Amino acid sequence: MRFPTAGRPVPAPLKNAALTAADLAGHLGRRSRALPDFLIAGAQRCGTTSLFKALMQHPQVFGPTLRKGVHYFDTAYGRGTDWYRSRFPLRRTVRRAASGAGGAVGESSPYYLFHPLCAERIAADLPEARVVVMLRDPVERAYSAHSHESARGFEDEPFERALDLEEERLAGEEERLAADPLAHSYHHQHHAYVARGRYIDQLLRLERHVGRERMFVVDSERFFAEPERHFPELEEFLGVRHCPGVAFGRHNAQPRTALPDRLRGRLERAFAESDERLAEWWGQTPSWRSSPDRAARPGPGADPPDGPSGERYASDLY
């Protein structure tokens, strides 16, 4: 079954029943199922869902059954490779894709980039898989992540207070995760607003384990501004032929008030050194550092509409 890309929300009881049935079917046929050829590893709130849904329109690209992200290499690694394999389509289905041209299997779990053990695990279990990483202005990413975590019930502090608490919340958590392969960290997964936006350290860790040649790094703002120009580069990286007519939507958008200039300045200073190192490693200046009107923009996309009380709303398109 292909991951659904459109349509009305499925009622929770029906969705849960379908997930249970798919899990059982996947487990029974796990030995005949494919493992991923590629992973969208993050970063969170950088357009990974939008990119995944675009890729799922390609006749040669397959995702997990029902779930976009499996979260095997971060929070479910203790379940084992057979469990992971059971999430994916049958190998014969992939081989028959696009009239015998073959296909690529992938998943999107945006915690993979940030979790300290994922890169090593990916290299060990999927030694030939390619890894796609999407990057966005880390200031907007942090603010978007706070809105996202708040909406899901994982955050109950206002944004500025959450920033003040981050160092305390994350103290020792990465070390604990690295030391205990079965450990989970609520704060590390849900409250790392600044830490997740220091992309370069995460990319260097990924590079050490999987190699630069297996990494495809996307500037989200540039990609979604001209997806028809950039998508063929990704198709080539994944080893699939070009598919015209793919629709590029914006998913998981959440309206929110514009970020105050005071907090924007605080975050820009926090990310300055990391962004400089990223530009040197990447060989290009990120869009959020090269745009002359950066400070005036609430985020990628059109100017935001006025809110019901006259306040400005940021356009969170990821």
Task: Write the topology of this structure.
Elements: H1 12-28, E1 38-42, H2 48-55, E2 61-62, H3 81-85, H4 91-95, H5 97-100, E3 104-108, H6 118-125, E4 130-135, H7 138-151, H8 159-170, H9 173-179, H10 186-190, H11 199-210, E5 215-219, H12 220-225, H13 227-238, E6 256-257, H14 261-282, H15 287-290, E7 313-314
Parallel strand pairs: 1-3, 1-4, 2-3, 4-5
Antiparallel strand pairs: 6-7
Helix pairs in contact: 6-11
Summing up helix and strand content along with how strands pair, one would put the structural category as alpha/beta
Proportion of strand residues: 5-15%
Named at the architecture level, the CATH assignment is: 3-Layer(aba) Sandwich
Can you tell me the residue ranges where pLDDT is under 50 for at least 5 consecutive residues? Answer: 1-8, 295-318
CATH topology: Rossmann fold
Question: Count of helices?
Answer: 15
Key words describing this protein structure:
44% helix; single chain; disordered C terminus; 7 strands; alpha/beta; Rossmann fold; 318 residues; two-stranded antiparallel sheet
Written description of the protein model:
It is a single chain. The radius of gyration is 20 Å and the shape is globular. Residues 1-8 and 295-318 have low confidence and may be disordered. The protein is an alpha/beta fold. Helices cover 44% and strands 8% of the residues. The strands form 2 sheets. The protein has a 5-stranded parallel beta sheet, with helices on both faces. Strands 6-7 form a two-stranded antiparallel ribbon. It has a single domain, classed as Rossmann fold, CATH 3.40.50. It starts with 11 loop residues before the first helix and ends with a strand. The longest helix is centred in the last third of the chain and has 22 residues, at 261-282.
